[in-house]
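re: that chain from earlier
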Amino acid sequence: MSHIPMYVTTLLCTDNYIQDFVNTHLHDSIQYLRLSNNLLQYLNISYTQTLESMIASNNKHLHSIDARNLPMLEYVDVSYCNFTTIHSKMFQASFKLKRLIMKHNFVRTIDKSIFYNMKELNYIDLSHNSIRCIDVQLFQQMKINAMIGSTLIYKFHGNQMNQTCKNAIIR
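^ sequence. v structure.
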């Protein structure tokens, strides 16, 4: 992939057998990246300055992503992968992120500071994971962001959340 012309803005690499993909493969004209249906385990797309949208769904072994410092990133879909944790550094300094879709993974843990600086985040889908409870502080920050800007839509159905946790989220 090192021979990608500099004028390419969309890179479609779906339905291949790609096992490794790091940001050194990308240059700063790439805006749209599709890596679905591959054999990825780890994905590093950090510091890709122009990337706006990244879809890497249906990578059954994908359990870790480095998407830090992506100033233009607005859309991420890593559904049907193998994530168990959403940690705070995953999308660090990706301030424009609006939509995060991580449905049908194995997420059990969400770092409570993950969404703190994501002022434009208005849609998050974590449905059909292994979430039992979510720190209330996570939702307080998301609700504050929604009050300042747009409507916040979050989907958590298909998880095993206890009633106390569900009530805290609704408040």
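The CA atoms of residues 68 and 91 lie 5 Å apart.
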